[in-house]
C-alpha cells in the first residue's frame, strides 16, 4: 500500500499536486527543544560554526532542513588535540563519577526521545515510531555502559615465588575515533561512545554526512549531562572532507583506537590507513544475512520474523535478511504468506500516520534495488508482489520467488526492501548455501527441532544467530561478525574490553 497525502514525499518535482501547490513544512520547526538543532561541530566543549557549510536534506521530500559546518582536516587535528588534553583528566575520574555522568546522559536521551526521533526521521527517513524506538535502543547502551564503568576489573594471579605478587590491571586505551553510518544515526554513536567514556577514554566522532543532526543533538545532551570539554568531540563533514578527515583520524598517532560501522570496502581502506600507527580496531562491516525456514517451522512466526528482519528501516540494516531460504515442502506456502504481509506495508513519509516504510537514503540506493530486481527477473525470478521504483527515493517493498545463486541479490547486500526467496531441500544444502558468502555478520533460522537448532546454529558461519527470532540485537549481547564482516564486538560486557589495555605488574622483593 502507498500513502500520498498533503505531507507525502511522493508529491514530486516542485511539490505540485492536481489541486495546487503544497507548501512543505520543515519538520525541525516542530521540535519541542529547538536548542537541540545544532549546525556546527563540537570541539573542546565549544560549538564550531564555519563559513563553509553543506546542506542536510529530508530524503522523503528533498527539502533542505538545515546546513551544517563542513569541517576539514584542520578541525580534525584540533579535535584530536582537545581529546588528548582531556584524556589526562578523564582517565583519572573515578568509575563512579563516569557512571553518574553517563546515567544523566541516559536520562536526557530518554527525556528528549520525541525531539531526537523527529530529527532522525527528518534527516534519515525512517518512520517516526521506528525512530523513537531507535532512541530508546541507543539510550540502552548508555545505561548499560554506565553500569559497566564500575566493572572494569583486573586480576591477582597466583605467584610461584614467595617474594613476588602478580597483578593485571585494565587501563583506558587513550584517544578514540568513531566513524558512524547513516542508517542508525544515534544507536551507532552511543554503542561506541558509551563504552569509550565508561572506560576512561576520550573520543572524536565523525557521523555520516547524511545524518549529522541527530549526532549533534546527542552531543548537546551529553554536555548538559556533565561530559567535560574535549571528552566528546563531533566533526561534521561534507562528502569530500569526510574522506580526508577519516584518513586524518586513521593516520594520527594520537588516536589509539578506531571504531567504524559501514561497508567492508571502506573498512579495508581504514585498516590500511591505520596500519602505520598499529591502532586497535573495531570494525562492524557488511552483511549478507541468510534466513533459513525449515519445514518444521511455525510459518506464522517465520513470516513475522522475516518481516521484522527484512523490512525494518526499509531493508537498510546490516543484519537484515538478505537471502531467505525456505525448504521445499513449505516453500510455496511461506512465499504466499510473506507476500500477503508485505502487501500490507504502508509506504510514505515517515511522519505520516501508519507509514511503516520510509524512503531510501539516496537515489543511488534506489537504483541498486532496481538493478538487483531487474537482474533477478532476467535470470528467471518470479515477482510475487509488485516491485518498482516510485517517485522520489521510494521503492515498493517486493518479494521475488524462484531466486537462484547466480543472481546479484544472492551475492551482494541489497540494502533495500527486496526479499528474494530461495528453495532448498536438505539441511546440508541450506547450510552450504547460507555459508556461501565472504560475509558472516548475522544468520537466522526457524525450526522446532531442537537437534536441528543446535546443529545449524553451530554450523552457520556468522557472529550472531537468531533462532525463531528476527530481531536479535540488544545492549547486553555481543554484536559483531566474522570473516569479512569485521573484527571486535560491541555491546555486552565484552564491548568495553575494546577500549582498555591489559597491563601486567610484577612486584618483587615482597619479603625484604
TrEMBL record:
Pfam families: Aldedh
Active site: 284
Gene that specifies this protein: gabD
GO biological process: gamma-aminobutyric acid catabolic process
Start and end residues of each Aldehyde dehydrogenase domain: 53-505
SUPFAM superfamilies the record matches: ALDH-like
Superkingdom of the source species: Bacteria
Taxonomy of the source species: Bacteria, Pseudomonadati, Pseudomonadota, Betaproteobacteria, Burkholderiales
GO molecular function: succinate-semialdehyde dehydrogenase (NAD+) activity
GO-annotated cellular components: cytosol
Classification via Gene3D superfamilies: Aldehyde Dehydrogenase, Chain A, domain 1 (3.40.605.10), Aldehyde Dehydrogenase, Chain A, domain 2 (3.40.309.10)
Protein name as catalogued: Succinate-semialdehyde dehydrogenase (NADP(+))
InterPro entries per UniProt: Ald_DH/histidinol_DH, Ald_DH_C, Ald_DH_CS_CYS, Ald_DH_CS_GLU, Ald_DH_N, Aldehyde_DH_dom, Aldehyde_DH_Superfamily, Succ_semiAld_DH
Statement: the UniProt record of this protein carries the keyword Glycoprotein: no
Family under the similarity heading: Belongs to the aldehyde dehydrogenase family.
This protein's UniProt keywords: Oxidoreductase
Amino acid at each position: 500500500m502507498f500513502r500520498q497525502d498533503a505531507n507525502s514525499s511522493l508529491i514530486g518535482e516542485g511539490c505540485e499536486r492536481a489541486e495546487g501547490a503544497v507548501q512543505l513544512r520543515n519538520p525541525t520547526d516542530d521540535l519541542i527543544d529547538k536548542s537541540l538543532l545544532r549546525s556546527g561541530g563540537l570541539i573542546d566543549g565549544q560549538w564550531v560554526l564555519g563559513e563553509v557549510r553543506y546542506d542536510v536534506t529530508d530524503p522523503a521530500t528533498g527539502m533542505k532542513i538545515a546546513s551544517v559546518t563542513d569541517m576539514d582536516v584542520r578541525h580534525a587535528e584540533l579535535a584530536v588535540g582537545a581529546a588528548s588534553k582531556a584524556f589526562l583528566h578523564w582517565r583519572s575520574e573515578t568509575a563512579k563519577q563516569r557512571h553518574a555522568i553517563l546515567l544523566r546522559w541516559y536520562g536526557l536521551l530518554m527525556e528528549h526521545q520525541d525531539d531526537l526521533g523527529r530529527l532522525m526521521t527528518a534527516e534519515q527517513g525512517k518512520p517516526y515510531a521506528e525512530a523513537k524506538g531507535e532512541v530508546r535502543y541507543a539510550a540502552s547502551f548508555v545505561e548499560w555502559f554506565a553500569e559497566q564503568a564500575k566493572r572494569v576489573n583486573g586480576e591477582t594471579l597466583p605467584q610461584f615465588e614467595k617474594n613476588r605478587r602478580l597483578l593485571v590491571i585494565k587501563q583506558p586505551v587513550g584517544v578514540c575515533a568513531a566513524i558512524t553510518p547513516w542508517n542508525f544515526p544515534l544507536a551507532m554513536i552511543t554503542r561506541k561512545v558509551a563504552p569509550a567514556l565508561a572506560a576512561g577514554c576520550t573520543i572524536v566522532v565523525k557521523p555520516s554526512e547524511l545524518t549529522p543532526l541527530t549526532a549533534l543533538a546527542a552531543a548537546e545532551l551529553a554536555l548538559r549531562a556533565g561530559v567535560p570539554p574535549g571528552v566528546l568531540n563531533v566533526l561534521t563533514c561534507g562528502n569530500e572532507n569526510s574522506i580526508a578527515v577519516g584518513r586524518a583520524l586513521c593516520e594520527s598517532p594520537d588516536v589509539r583506537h578506531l571504531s567504524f560501522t559501514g561497508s567492508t570496502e571502506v573498512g579495508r581502506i581504514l585498516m590500511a590507513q591505520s596500519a602505520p600507527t598499529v591502532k586497535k580496531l573495531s570494525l562492524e562491516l557488511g552483511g549478507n544475512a541468510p534466513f533459513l525456514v525449515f519445514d518444521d517451522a511455525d510459518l506464522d512466526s517465520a513470516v513475522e520474523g522475516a518481516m521484522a528482519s527484512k523490512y525494518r528501516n526499509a531493508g537498510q540494516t546490516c543484519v537484515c535478511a538478505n537471502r531467505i531460504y525456505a525448504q521445499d515442502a513449505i516453500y510455496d506456502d511461506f512465499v504466499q504468506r510473506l507476500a500477503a504481509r508485505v502487501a500490507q506495508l504502508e509506504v510514505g513519509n515517515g511522519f505520516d500516520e501508519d507509514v511503516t516504510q520510509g524512503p531510501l537514503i539516496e537515489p543511488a540506493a534506489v537504483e541498486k534495488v532496481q538493478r538487483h530486481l531487474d537482474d533477478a527477473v532476467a535470470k528467471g525470478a518470479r515477482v510475487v508482489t509488485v516491485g518498482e521504483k516510485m517517485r522520489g527515493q521510494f521503492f515498493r517493498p517486493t518479494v521475488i520467488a524462484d531466486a537462484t545463486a547466480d543472481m546479484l541479490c544472492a551475492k551482494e547486500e541489497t540494502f533495500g526492501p527486496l526479499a528474494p526467496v530461495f528453495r532448498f531441500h536438505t539441511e546440508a544444502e541450506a547450510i552450504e548455501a547460507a555459508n556461501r558468502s565472504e560475509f558472516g555478520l548475522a544468520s537466522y533460522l526457524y525450526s522446532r527441532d531442537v537437534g536441528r537448532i543446535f546443529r545449524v546454529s553451530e554450523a552457520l558461519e556468522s557472529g550472531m544467530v537468531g533462532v525463531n527470532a528476527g530481531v536479535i540485537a540488544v545492549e547486553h549481547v555481543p554484536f559483531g561478525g566474522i570473516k569479512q564482516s569485521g573484527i571486535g564486538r560491541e555491546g555486552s560486557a565484552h564491548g568495553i574490553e575494546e577500549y582498555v589495555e591489559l597491563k601486567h605488574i610484577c612486584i618483587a622483593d615482597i619479603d625484604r
